[in-house]
Amino acid sequence: MGGTVRDGRSGRFGRALSAAWTPERKAAATYRAYRGLAAVMGHVPEPAALAGARAASRLVLARSDGRRAMYERHLAKVLGRRLERDEVTAWARRVFANYARYWVEGARLGSMPGTAVDARMSIESGYEHLQAAMAGGAGAIVALPHLGSWEWGGAWLARRGYPMTAVAEVLEPEDLYRWFVAQRAAIGLTIVPLDRSAGPALLRTLRDGGLVGLVADRDLLGTGVEVEFFGDATTMPAGPATLALRTGAALLPVAVYQGPGRSHTGVILPPIDTSRTDDLRSDVRRVTQQLAAAFEGLVRRAPDQWYCFQPMWPEDRADRGGGAGVVADGGVPGVDETGLGAGTRTSSGLGAGEVGRPSPGGAGRHSEQRGVRQAPL
User: Fold this and answer.
1) How many Å apart are CA 41 and CA 104, to the nearest integer?
2) Is the bond preceding residue 47 a cis peptide, omega within 30 degrees?
3) How many domains does the chain fold into?
């Protein structure tokens, strides 16, 4: 009987606690948690913050069998062979540690002196392609895979007179979204909300000769354009190609890698051929395939910095039970009207393509969850 009484009290307590934990209180707690975590990462000495992040990455890895398995599958495609178990463990440790570094550095970037950004970021090759595109007056679209530390590239370019525009899904609570927008503004990125105005905003940016950025290697809902990627068929967002074809803006494949050491290295490839024919659908497919091929080379250079823990190929989605309920890395509303699979609920950062990874220090969640999604360089 005593056990029954305890169970009853426990149930009443649980119901009372649940009633007190209102959506408003949950939202406020989420906001405070993100701000508090970002503040800690921003004020702890960087070596200590990175050491803590590496330690945390080991714990996360130990509890992330699904993500580890997904990364192992993707890594085998990149390397073109199956891996032994000890190889998988070594690669997984590196990619989780690099992802932890991405978060820590992203949290600190907004408060970092511009001179420090200049000292720790350089462009290895291809900067002339971006300069020529911006000088041409039609704007430029920077398209990237989920690789390295793209925000450093965005901050560095803003300091050289090339501020970037991105799109982010509006977070709940709204205070969190406003804070995220302010954090991105601190490093020179303009964020527009993901709604039907997003497409027109990106088109205006390009028609004004501005710069748009897209993290565009993933089509979580499987509604994009079919391409061959690392030897197998999958789909990728149509947005980057559609924007470039509609506006005449240059489409540049780009990566920003971590290293050497605490520095970051950017690589800008030559512009994709976006010449138009009388068949827009065919043009979008052709350009998207060229972009996929460019992404292959960028990813092969540093597979342990490719943060692709979500489905990439059809068999991945099948194993995960499909993509229902996932916000797609797809077209931007008002832009991807090609009939090639553009969705209206997409996270495209700058014009079609996911708005990027969860914002380090910004406020994002993984792409399986609702959260801030950004998309610049």
Assistant:
1) 6
2) no
3) 1
Sequential DSSP letters for 326-347: PPBS-PPTTT--SSS---SSB-
- Confidence at 349, pLDDT banded by 50, 70, 90: very low
Contacts for 306 with CB less than 8 Å, ≥ 6 apart: 74, 78, 95, 145, 146, 147, 299
Q: Is residue 175 part of a domain?
A: yes
- The answer as to whether 71 is a domain residue is yes
Q: For residue 34, give every residue at least 6 positions away whose Cβ sits within 8 Å of its Cβ, in sequence order, or none.
A: 176, 179, 363
* Cis-peptide into 360, omega within 30 deg: no
Residue with the larger pLDDT of the pair 322 and 267: 267
- Phi, psi (degrees; rounded to nearest 5) at 189: -100, 135
Give the DSSP letter of residue 145. Answer: -
Residue 121 inside a domain? The answer is yes
* Model pLDDT, residue 45: 81
Higher-confidence residue of 134 and 370: namely: 134
CA distance 255 to 27: 34
Which of these, 78, 58, 61, lies nearest to 303 by C-alpha position? 78
Q: Which of 169, 124, 115 lies closest to 148, judged by CA? A: 124
Domain with 159 in it:
2-319
